[in-house]
Amino acid sequence: MSRPFLFAVALSAPAALLAQAAPAPQSIPRAAFITTMDGEFRKIDTDRDGQISRVEIDKFQRAAALAIVQERRRRLFADLDADRNGQISPSEFAKVPIATPRTDAATLMRFDTGRDGKVSLLEHRTATLANFDRLDTDKDGVVSALERTAGPARR
């Protein structure tokens, strides 16, 4: 599943939270990257106007953060249920602290080169492809596993 890596390009910290158990790096062709990033853009663009606003980004990130918290709770419950009988007292479960991940729309809003408070598909694609191209150090149109683990080239 390469989606957590690809989404991380666009949403940095929240995506990193989504990539809890990231798979081994794999090569990513540029065309597949574009398709995936466009799909991620459409998931955030809930009003389907071709632009993502700060409100849409905040809402998407909050939902992603909530999903992470719910999964952590599910795993924690399974860990606490030592005898696997499906029961943990409410008082035991309530004592377990679970931090909610922080959201930050400014991470994606930095792509708003038009400074109109919205990120268009073109702005989103330009910024994310710049990162893809930075990672594709041999300029063959594919980010290989080696290039992903090596990180961006210094220019």
Q: Describe the strand arrangement of the main beta sheet, using strand numbers.
A: 1-4
Helix segment count?
Answer: 8
* Rg computed from alpha carbons, rounded to a whole number of angstroms: 19 Å
Mean pLDDT, all residues: 82
Subunit organisation of the chains: single chain
Q: Could you say how many structural domains there are in total?
A: 1
The biggest beta sheet reads: 2 strands, antiparallel
Distance between the termini: 30 Å
Flag low-confidence runs: 1-20
Shape: extended
Write the layout of secondary structure elements.
Blueprint (H helix, E strand, L loop, with lengths): L2 H9 L1 H6 L9 E2 H15 L6 E3 H27 L9 H5 L11 H4 L8 E3 H15 L6 E2 L1 H6 L5
Antiparallel strand pairs: 1-4, 2-3
Notes on the protein architecture:
With about 160 residues, the protein is mainly α. The protein has one domain (about 5-150). The protein has 8 helices and 4 strands; from the N terminus they run ααβαβαααβαβα. The longest helix has 27 residues, at about 55-80. The two termini are about 30 Å apart.
